[in-house]
Amino acid sequence: MTPHISAKPGDFAETVLMPGDPRRAEWAAKTFLTDARLVTDVRGMLGFTGTHKGKPVSIMGSGMGMPSMSIYANELIREYGAKTLIRIGSCGGMQPEVKVRDIVIAMTASSLSTPSQSFFHGMNFAPSADWSLLNAAAKASVAQGISAHIGGILSSDTFYDEREDHQAALRRHGVLAVEMETAELYTVAARHKARALAILTVSDHLITGEALPASDRERSFGQMVEIALASA
Ligand code: HPA
Question: Which CATH number fits domain 15-231: 3.40.50.1580, 3.40.50.2000, 1.10.600.10, 1.10.599.10?
Answer without folding.
Answer: 3.40.50.1580
